[in-house]
Amino acid sequence: MKKITRCCWAPLDDPLYLEYHDQEWGKPVHDDRVLYEFLLLESFQAGLSWATILRKRENFRRAFHGFDPHQIARYDDSHVARLLQDAGIVRHRQKIESAINNARQLLDIQEQRGSFDSYIWEFVDGSPILNQFTTLAEIPSRTAISDRMSKDLKQRGFRFLGSTTCYSFMQACGLVNDHILACAYRHKPG
User: Counting C-beta atoms within 10 Å of the first and last residue's C-beta, which end of the chain has fewer, N or C?
Assistant: First the structure.
C-alpha cells in the first residue's frame, strides 16, 4: 500500500485534524458566513493551539448561532454573559466581545462592498497565492499581505486580528495555499 504524504502538522492519529487538513485547509472560501467563521475561530485561537479550537468548533458553532454574523451582530451584554459561562468554548471576555464587534464590522463591509468576500480577496488580487514550500519550516507566520490585511481590518474597527492571525486565516480560507509540495492533498485553485 502506498503511503499518502500530508503536511506534517496534521497528526496521522487524529481523524478530526486529518479531515480538516484534507477537506478544508487551503481550499478557497467565498462564502461570507464561512469567512466569518474562520475569522472568529482564528481570533479565538490566538495564544492557544489550533487543536484546542478544532475540538471546540462544534461548540462554537452552537454557541455563536452557526457563525451567522447577522445574529451575532445583535448580541448584547446578556449574550456575553451566557458565552462566558459556556464551558464548551474558550471563555475569554475580550475575544467574545471582539467576535461580536467583528460581526458588526463585517456587515458594514458587506453594505459598502456587496460582500465580505469581495473585500477580503482583494488582498490577493482575487486568486489564491500558490506557494511552493517543501518543508514546514519554510512557511511564514506572517507576510506583507497579512500585515496589510491586519492594518486595514483594524482601521475598519476589527479587533483581535493581528498579522499572524490574519495569515492563519488566509491559509485556512485558501487565500494562500501553504500545503507543502509533497502533500497529496495539495489543493488547486478554484
Answer: N
